[in-house]
Amino acid sequence: MSMEVYPLIFEPILKDRIWGGTKLETDLGKTNLPTKTTGESWELSAVNGDVSVVKDGAYAGKPLTELLEKYPAEILGTKVHAQFGTQFPLLFKFLDAREDLSIQVHPNDELAKKRHNSFGKTEMWYVMQADEGSRIIVGFKHKSSPEEYLKHLEDKNLIEILNEVPAEKGQTFFLETGTIHAIGAGIVIAEIQQTSDITYRIYDWDRVDANGKGRELHVDLALDAMNYNTTDTQKQYTQEPNKSNVMVDCPYFTTSFLPLKGDKGVGKDGSSFTVYICTEGEFALEFEGKKFSYGKGDTVLVPAVLKSFVLSGEATLLEICIS
Predict the structure, then answer these.
(1) Cβ atoms within 10 A of the Cβ of 205, count?
(2) How confident is the model at residue 189 (pLDDT cuts 50, 70, 90)?
(3) CB within 8 A of 173, min separation 6: which ones?
(4) Would 283 disulfide with which of 17, 58, 291, 315, CB 3.0-4.6 Å?
C-alpha cells in the first residue's frame, strides 16, 4: 500500500525539568503544560519511550516508529534509509531555561555505542529568545586538562575556567561531542541533535529537589568523553531572504536559516527528509492543490518522497536535512 503523502506534525512531548518554566506556553503556544517547570518540548523524536505521535491527517495517532516501519524510504529518503534503516536519526526539541541547566558533556558515537548502545550526541542550538544578561556556557576559556578540570570542580569554581558568552536572539552554536556546556537561565532554544538521550551531568549548581536530593552526577564517565581544548562553537551565517542560508553542515545534519518573504518554490531529490522549525511568523506549505498552514513553535516533517512544494508567508524558518 502506498503512503498518503503530506507534511507531518506531531504532538509535543512535554518534560518537567527542575530548571524549566512556562515560556513554552507563553512564547511557543504549547498548551497543557504539565507543570510550571516544563523545560522541554520534544517535537520530533524516535527515542525509546518517547516516540512522537502524528497530530493530524490520515496518520493521526500513529507513532513515528510505526510509519517508519511501513514507509522507511518514503519518509527518510533513499540515502538516509540506506544509512539508518528504519531508525529516525535526529531529535528536535525546544528548551525553556528558567534557571541554569547543569554543566554537562555528551559522548561521541564510539563511546556511546560501547557504553550505552546508543548514538553519540552532536547537537546545535538556535537562540529563539534571551532575557537581558543571560549567557551560554560553552567550552573552556583556555586549553585545560583532566587535572585542572577536576581541581576546579572539587573547589566548586569550575565556572572560572569555562567560556561564558552573552546570549542574544539569533545566535547559533554547534556543539560537537565532548564540548562542555550549559544553557544559562532566561533563554529559549531550538535544539537539533542526533537521536540520543545520553548526557553526562558534571555539576548541577548544588541544586536539590523538594526531598532535598541532588540529581545524579556522572563525573567519572565524563572524564574521557571531554574535549579539553578550546572550541569554536558559535556559527556566523547569512540571512538572505527566500534562500537556504547554511548555518551548520556536519555529517549528522545540515541546518539552514530561511527568512521567508512571499513565495519560495522548493525542489528536493528524495535522498533525505526535510524538517522546518518555525521560529517566527506564519507560513504555508502547498503541493498539488493542497495547503497546510503553520506558525511559530511548529516543527514540520516533510517526507522525502514529497519532492516539490511551495512555501509562502512571512516567517523565519530553520530548514534541516541530512546531506
Answers:
(1) 15
(2) very high
(3) 124, 125, 136, 138, 233, 234, 235
(4) 315
Q: Please tell me the pTM assigned to this model.
A: 0.95
pLDDT at 70: 97
Beta bridge partners of 193: 91, 123
- CA gap 242, 311 in Å, rounded: 9
Query: What is the tens place of the pLDDT at every residue in 259-270?
Result: 999 999 999 999
- Write down the pLDDT at residue 198: 87
Cα Rg of the chain (Å, integer) = 20
Residues with catalytic roles: 201
In whole angstroms, give the CA distance from residue 221 to residue 273. 34
Looking at the domain that runs over 13-235, which CATH code has it been given?
2.60.120.10
CA distance 258 to 147: 44
CA distances 321 to 181, 215, 297, Å, are 25, 35, 19
User: Are the beta carbons of 125 and 172 closer than 8 angstroms?
Assistant: yes
Classify domain 245-321 at the CATH superfamily level: Jelly Rolls (2.60.120.10)
Q: What is the pLDDT of residue 120?
A: 87
C-alpha cell at 315: 516567517
Where along the chain do its domains lie?
A: 13-235, 245-321
